[in-house]
Amino acid sequence: MNKVVLTGATLVSACLMVSACGLFRPSDDRILFDGQSFRAKAKVVDKKVSPANFTVVINGVSASLDGAREAGRYEGTKFCIENFGSSRIEWKVGPDTEPQQLQISDDKLTFAGTCQRP
Known about the structure:
By secondary structure, the chain is an alpha+beta fold.
């Protein structure tokens, strides 16, 4: 009887360990920009004024300015597609802005744009 309980407990433990493998592999799914992974988040500026106006904040810009710019472009494009069905963006400050005009503070790059309807 102890042998059956031990085998069952071992089987349950093994299943839990295998099912948890996906929890510890988030880096495999990350998209790299200039060989770096960036945390970026797009959000609406003021939904009452215009839900199409948004900002993107990209963390870790010191790792690669070019990579951070492309991560911001990606996040902005994803935001507009998900919310407006179009990848067209009119950037106020964006990935193609001259480096000296970019908004960088505390190792964070901030873009601002407006999603364009299809």
